[in-house]
Amino acid sequence: RKEVEQDPGPFNVPEGATVAFNCTYSNSASQSFFWYRQDCRKEPKLLMSVYSSGNEDGRFTAQLNRASQYISLLIRDSKLSDSATYLCVVNGAGSYQLTFGKGTKLSVIP
Amino acid sequence: NAGVTQTPKFRVLKTGQSMTLLCAQDMNHEYMYWYRQDPGMGLRLIHYSVGEGTTAKGEVPDGYNVSRLKKQNFLLGLESAAPSQTSVYFCASKRTARGYEQYFGPGTRLTVT
């Protein structure tokens, strides 16, 4: 089993739609979880951290299920500017190493 | 704060040539990383450093060497470039404590012909 698995997509959704991405991780000892966003030909940038109780940042909601080793990202009211690849990220064996999923590509269509 | 910077942004090498990629960060981060990103492969860790003077191998270290002589700089060297090393290279840095994210540089696009 790969350390961090994501559906590669692409997800093609109309503007205003709600879209959800899922991610599973294999290391049950993982402590920190993030969603990064990567625009085409650009570097990954932090979108949001994921907390055990779930957290929201505007139109974005992240959830963590430790028992199932599952992370999700919900985007409401999709904008054209949300088109990007979303990377699920989990800390590795130590505090120094993060493990990146391969990403899910989202295209928001007018 | 410039954050994480990388030089050069683009480079074309011929097989067998050597080069060094420079990464610099001004956030006083202890940890620094070099990744490569290829289509369909995601980000793969080449080497990393947990402090000045220390380096360690990541997932795909073969064909690369690194040095961390100063805390703010992390150099990635290719001694004898091969076409398989054509990729986008990203440097990143991070605070020591668990829970903090990595900050990435803008990337270097390397083509080896």
Core attributes:
heterodimer, A: 110 residues, mainly beta, six-stranded mixed beta sheet, five-stranded antiparallel beta sheet, 11 strands, 0% helix, B: 113 residues, seven-stranded mixed beta sheet, four-stranded antiparallel beta sheet, 50% strand, globular
Description:
The complex is a heterodimer of chains A (110) and B (113). Chain A is 0% helix and 53% strand. Chain A has strands at 4-6, 11-14, 19-25, 33-38, 45-50, 55-57, 60-65, 70-75, 84-91, 98-100, 104-109. In chain A, strands 2, 4, 5, 9, 10 and 11 form a six-stranded mixed sheet that branches. In chain A, strands 1-3-8-7-6 form a five-stranded antiparallel sheet, with no helix packed on it. The radius of gyration of chain A is 13 Å and the shape is globular. The termini of chain A are far apart. Chain B is mainly β. In chain B, 0% of the residues lie in helices and 50% in strands. Chain B is built from no helices and eleven strands. Chain B has strands spanning 4-7, 10-13, 19-25, 31-38, 42-49, 56-57, 65-67, 73-78, 87-94, 103-104, 108-112. In chain B, a hairpin with a 3-residue loop joins strand 4 and strand 5. Chains A and B meet through strand 5 and strand 9 of A and strand 5 and strand 10 of B.
